[in-house]
Design goal:
Layout lengths: L8 H11 L7 E5 L2 E5 L1 H9 L4 H16 L8 H10 L4 H10 L4 H16 L9 H22 L6 H9 L15 E2 L16 E2 L2 H15 L3 H7 L21
Antiparallel strand pairs: 1-2, 3-4
Helix pairs in contact: 1-4, 3-4, 4-6, 6-7
């Protein structure tokens, strides 16, 4: 029997059924004038192995009738049992679809489970092919899903892209102090040492102010220049001009 360990819905259902307390119980089925008590594993082996057709019909009828009698809002173990019994009949087509298309196996398994549960409500209890009816419904739904996905063309989710882009918070530029320098390295440093062109950037106003201050200090006029400076908001009352020595006025 093919392994059901796929990590999808089939694996979860198998683990739930086999680990539940009900897994150890025996199903009582009536085959003609015989009454047989079978474990869950024995029931599934009888459905897909060589055996009595009448026994297969009795097992499906018992499982379907028990699932339909479950109260709404209950554990749903009976419904899961029907799905679990149908799983071996789905693997061949499941693997064919996965190999031929780009459909995710987990999505196919979910579609198959939904199809079996839907067919469970409509299958005829007097039919001799209840299992085949539910398995065919699941296979049909898997192929239909694969064909629908094959025709789809992936496109960019423009709304989502815009949402992510607009939600990006731009880093605020840190405020630079007037005493800071900018260092530009071109090209980047190498392993064998620093190899770069250095460029120190500063404002023209500050450079001019430093030059005037240095000249005023050399001339012994720092206090006079300091008192004569004008704030940006103040009214202009005069100008201070520095000329090379001996230059024409």
């Amino acid at each position: 029997m093919i392994s059901t360990d796929s990590g999808g819905a089939f694996s979860l259902i198998g683990g739930t059924i086999l680990k539940a307390p009900e897994a150890r119980r025996l199903l009582t089925v009536n085959v003609g004038h015989r009454r047989m008590r079978l474990s869950l594993e024995e029931c599934r082996n009888a459905l897909y192995g060589p055996g009595d057709e009448e026994l297969r019909t009795a097992i499906w009828r018992h499982a379907v009738a028990e699932a339909r009698q479950e109260p709404r809002g209950g554990a749903g173990t009976g419904h899961l049992l029907v799905v679990w019994l149908a799983l071996p009949g789905l693997y061949r087509n499941l693997h064919r679809i996965v190999c031929r298309s780009r459909v995710e196996r987990a999505d196919l398994e979910a579609e198959a489970v939904l199809a079996v549960l839907s067919a469970l409500d409509t299958v005829d209890l007097d039919s001799s092919d209840m299992g085949g009816y539910m398995i065919k419904a699941a296979v049909k739904r898997m192929w239909a899903y694969a064909n629908r996905i094959r025709r789809e063309v992936p496109v960019l989710d423009v709304a989502r892209f815009a949402e992510v882009r607009n939600a990006t918070v731009l880093r605020e530029e840190p405020r630079r102090s007037a005493d800071e320098w900018e260092l530009h390295l071109t090209p980047p440093p190498r392993r064998d040492g620093l190899a770069a062109t250095l460029r120190f950037a500063e404002s023209r106003t500050r450079r001019e102010g430093e030059r005037i201050g240095a000249l005023a200090h050399c001339a012994g006029l720092p206090e006079l220049v300091f008192r004569a400076r004008r704030h940006e908001e103040a009214e202009l009352i005069g100008t201070l001009v520095l000329r090379p020595a001996g230059a024409q006025r």
